[in-house]
Structure formats: structure tokens, C-alpha cells
Amino acid sequence: MMDRRTRLGGALLAGVLALGAAGAVAYASDHLDPSPRVDGAHGLPADIADLYAWKQGDDVVLVLDYAGLVQPAANQSGTYDRDVLYTLNIDSADADFEPDASIQVRFGKDGNGQWGVQLLNVPGAGGPIEGAVEQTLTKGSAKAFAGLRDDPFFFDEQGYLDTLSTGTLSFDSTRDFFAGQNTTAIVVEFPVSALPGAGPHRFWATTGRIGTGG
Amino acid sequence: MRNALHLTLAVCAAVAMAACGSSTTVTPQPDGGTPQPDGGSVAGFDFRTDAPGAYTRFDRVGMPAVSTVLAMDKDAYNDGTPTADANLDFAGQLITSLTNLHAALDDDFTGAGLTPCSMDPSDPNDAMSLPKCLAQEVAPGVSVVSLVVPDTLTLDTSKASGFPNGRLLTDPVIDVTLNVIFLDLSVHGPGTLAGVPINPPANDVAFLSAFPYLAPPHTL
What is the mean pLDDT of chain A? Predict the structure, then answer.
């Protein structure tokens, strides 16, 4: 069994090396992609980590997390940036790959300097969802949350990086690079019946920063 | 190659349809107050009211790992759209990456007792005129190429959720992705590599059974 694992690991290593030669630092699933655009405080809030979508009872749940690879710290809060727009696109009606609904998510502070979140166009909400971060917000038949969470992704990224730097096979299925790390997540839940069409439903997420030049 | 793929995709490609969902709407307030345009805040927060067009694209994500692993021009890919994907603007990059990977790896998979799928353009799937790796089905009616082009996460709510039908927090998406793009699915099921596994099979902490599902943040 160990031989099998090692040989499989070797096969995957070769693939990773081939990709490295293609010029990309590949932080799966999408962390630090696009890497050339990520430059610390400016890039991190717009750097999507992962997108999830599933049916939960009679509802659909969408999760978009970003600003990953954050180690726990004292008095830590989520990553919020007034200048970034998060969009969750849904093509449900006609499979034309154009959004039939686009949930827009923005952050802003109140007069006391406390961060809030606004979600527009959430199916089933009947209007904007607004409120403090780190809380479950309910409007109509929809729920929303934005805040700091455990990074839900699991992958031996460290083994991949070690392998690239040392040339020695380092994959280890017992090592989770994302263990113990935090990310900021936007979670929305609303009835399947509120989706803009019968589906199958196609979801994709984008981020943008105000103004030009990324 | 390009033409063959285009023919396949043309079946499901776009018919003109107006985008919606991003325009300003007027929402009645629950307290019966004056209807207020979306944007701005009813709760005292200073949200930007700029239209989506005022923002410059930074990142785009649909399926996990596709842009990270297979796209070669990351900026162009992230600036793209599913419509551009369906127009095959990036298909050449994805096919080149995958073909190169197979050239490097197929011997290794074979050596591990596994059967890789074929990316040989002269060995197409008869029905789809695509290399077998792209034409093979992950589930009935769901080909590998349909999962990757366009780059969206697709969910059929009439079927059980679970990658690649949507994505659960618990899904081992990287092992499954490697499985379906490298192995012959007529020989090996899509869960073969996840069963080894290659990568960690689960998150480090348990997810919540109720909203918001993600585990609380780690603390010092």
C-alpha cells in the first residue's frame, strides 16, 4: 500500500512540476490566484479562495470565502474592504451562461466604526439584506452571514511547495496545509424555489475593486 | 481539435438573452416607509452605491482548481466570463495544459496500476469527436468537458448534492478532479483517487450542521 501511495504521489508530483514550469504558483483551490495581483492588504480582500453550492433541505446554500491563509491572532476580525464588490452569479433559466441573478455583496462601516455587510438581489429576500458582520441576518425567506471562519478547504499544499523547492517528493495525505487557518466567508441560504429558473443551476463568483487598475 | 470541441459546445452555447439582476431596483421598506433604491443603507452603514461596472475585475471562480491548475494566462482568465469560456477563448490553454500533464504522467499512472484516459486527438470519442479524457462521463450525461467549459459550478437540485454536482464543504474536490481528468472512468470510478487518498480526506475541524455551516474561526 505504501508503494502504491508513493508511486501515485510521484505521478502527481510530476504533474505539479509540469504546472510549475508553466509559470504559475498554484495555490489550490483558488487561493492566491491570480497571484500576480495579490499584493498584501490591497489584493487579499479580493482574492477568492473557494466557492461552494449545495442543496440543504428545501434551500440552496452558497459559500464564497476569500482572504484565506490567515493564521489566528488576538482580537482577530474578518477581512472587510469597502472598495471591493463580491458577486455571486446564478444562471438558472436558460443555460446561456449569462447571470439570471447576481447577488452583490459590499462592506461598509457605521458611525461607530463597526463593519456591516449588504447583500443585494438575494433570491427570496425581497430586498437588501443589511446588518453587522459576524451575525446571521434574516430577511424574507433568506439568510446571510459574513465573517471570519475556519478555512474549510483541505489539501497538502505544503507538500506541494516543499516538493517544488527541494525536488524531493513530499506529498502526505495526513498533512492539511489549511488546518488551523482562517478565512473570511460570505454565506447565503434561500429556497430552491426562489432560484431564477428550474436549472440545472450554474454558479460562479467574481470580485472587483472600485476604479480602474485592479 | 478546436473545431471538434466547438461543435460539441455549440449545442449548449449561448442564445442571446438579456443579463439581469444587477440593475437598480426599488424595494418597499418593511416598516411601510418610503421605498428606497438598492444601494446605500437603511441601517446606517456606509456602503458604496457604485454600479458593478465601476469596479475592475480581480478574480473569478467557478469550479475549484480549474483556473489555478489549467489556465495559463491567469489575468485574462480571471477577467473572462462563462460566455467567453463557452466561446472557447481559453479552451486552447486548458487543453494544452492537460495534454502536457498527460504526456508527463500517463506512464506513472500506468505504473501505479491505473489506466489513464486518452488525450490523443487522433483517438476521439466516436460520439463527440473529442479526446476521450474530455468526452468521458463523470455521471450519466455529464461529460468532463461540460464541467470545465464554461467554468461554473453546476448544481442539479433534483439529484443529490456532492462534487461535481455542486460542491459540499466535505467534498475531496482535488482528488476527484485529478481522478476525472487523468483516469479512464470506464475502468476506474471517479472516487478512486479519493479512496487512496492523495490529499487529506477531510477538514481539520468539524463543520456545523446548521447555518452558517463553516466552523468558527481558530483562535490563539
Answer: 82
Contacts of A110 in chain B (CB under 8 A): 43-46
Please report whether residue A214 resides in a domain: no
Condensed to tens digits (0 to 9), the pLDDT of residues B90-134 reads: 999 999 988 987 887 788 788 889 999 999 887 777 666 788 999
Residue A119 lies in a domain: yes
Nearest to A61 by CA among A136, A168, A1, A162: A136
The count of structural domains within chain A is 1
Q: Where are the domains of chain B?
A: 2-11+59-182
Q: Does B115 touch chain A (CB under 8 A)?
A: no
pLDDT value of residue A213: 54
Set of chain A residues whose Cβ sits within 8 Å of the Cβ of B69: 19, 24, 26, 28
Mind listing the pLDDT tens digit for each residue in B11-68? 222 222 222 223 333 333 333 333 344 445 667 999 999 999 999 999 999 999 888 7
Beta-carbon count within 10 A of B146 CB: 18
What is the DSSP annotation of chain A?
-HHHHHHHHHHHHHHHHHHHHTT----SSSTT-SGGG--TTTTGGG-EEEEEEEEETTEEEEEEEEEEEE---TT------TTEEEEEEEE-SS-SSS-SEEEEEEEEE-TTS-EEEEEES-TTTSS-EEEETTS-EEETTEEEEEEEEE------HHHHHHHHHHSS----TT--TTTT-EEEEEEEEEEGGGSSSSS-EEEEEEEEEESS--
CB contact under 8 A, B215 and A96: no
Pairwise CB contact (< 8 Å): A101 & B14:
no
What residue type is assigned to position B137 of the chain? E
CA gyration radius for chain A?
19
User: Can you give the residue range of the structural domain that contains A40?
Assistant: 2-209
